[in-house]
Amino acid sequence: MLTYEELKQNREIRTYIKAADASLAALGYTEHSFAHVCKVAETVRYLLSSLGYSAHELEIAQMAAYLHDIGNLVNRVDHSQSGAIMAFRLLDHLGVDAEDIAAIVTAIGNHDEGTGVPINPIAAALILADKSDVRRSRVRNHNFSTFDIHDRVNYSVTASTLTVDTARKEVLLSLEIETDFSPVMDFFEIFLERMLLCRRAAESLGLRFRLQINDQTLL
User: Fold this and answer.
1) Residue 208 pairs with which residues in a beta bridge?
2) Other CB atoms closer than 10 Å to residue 81's CB: what's the count?
3) By percentage, how much of the chain surpasses pLDDT 90?
4) Does residue 198 contact residue 113 with C-beta atoms inside 8 Å?
5) DSSP H or E segment with residue 175
6) Cα–Cα dist 37/34, whole Å
7) Burial class (CB in 10 A: 0-12, 13-18, 19+), 84
8) DSSP tally for the chain: helices H, then strands E
9) DSSP 17-45
10) Cβ(37)–Cβ(66) under 8 Å?
11) What is the mean pLDDT of the chain?
């Protein structure tokens, strides 16, 4: 079968990911290129391996993570659905098994807030991994005076970790925020819907979602 590492080396897919990120850069969005998708893939693997999922499931979960934002090539609006369609075509062309394509496409099509639902474990892990990737290095704008709320919130985050505690059946997102750049309330203004989706995703994996900011438990 096609492996995650092989997928990462595919020239056509790399071209689409670069172009999708370039589209978001033109719109003023934070980084959604290889640093983001590879970080999400790493986190997805950690989540599912901690919960005892098979090596095969880890492989296809990482594939879903690597491809999850490719739909931004078409448009930011409904990018999860357009990305799922693109992924279907690409993976089918590469000879990936239909059951694996189904799991990957379902996860990609359900990873974004507003329309996303943690339909399967891969979708749930993708939601948690994607929404927890908040960090200063994703901010492209280097002019503080023109920061919007998304720039301020992402820039304020100096550390972000997602940890699974299997004994307590919990997944903890822990953030360190420099409140001089952004108050905690700004985080909730733009991320509350994402955090609620993370809670549903964690519950579908049999876990309780917890959010901790500057050592204070908020969810």
Assistant:
1) 170
2) 17
3) 96
4) no
5) strand 170-177
6) 5
7) buried
8) 9, 4
9) HHHHHHHHHHHTPPP-SHHHHHHHHHHHH
10) yes
11) 96
